[in-house]
Amino acid sequence: MAEGKKIRGKAQEATGKAKEKVGRATGSDDLRLKGAGDQAAGKAKQAAGEVEDVVKGTVEETKGKVRRHK
């Protein structure tokens, strides 16, 4: 699940970069700003995926410790 978030985030970030470049090339401030927004949202999705991985790892590690102490 977290891998999917990271992949979707990376794709959104790449799309945002493309929009921003096209906006700059055509002089469209609207498209340039949408591209910057997409990049930020994509980076946030990637970060959420990273956090999810860390949390899952911590939960699994804790479960393992509990099992060993039973």
Description:
The protein is an all-alpha fold. The protein contains two helices and no strands. The longest helix is centred in the last third of the chain and has 40 residues. The model has no long low-confidence stretch (mean pLDDT 91).
Descriptive keywords:
0% strand; 2 helices; 70 residues; mainly alpha
Question: Helix amount, in percent?
Answer: over 70%
Number of helices: 2
Strand content: under 5%
| Overall morphology | rod-shaped
Helix/strand-derived category reads mainly alpha
Radius of gyration: 18 Å
Overall mean confidence score, pLDDT: 91
Alpha carbon gap, first and last residue: 30 Å
Summarize the main sheet. Answer: none
H/E element order: HH
| Number of strand elements | 0
Low-confidence stretches: none
Strand and helix map with partners:
Blueprint: H1 2-26, H2 29-68
Helix pairs in contact: 1-2
Question: What's a quick, concise take on this entry?
Answer:
This protein has 70 residues and is an all-alpha fold.
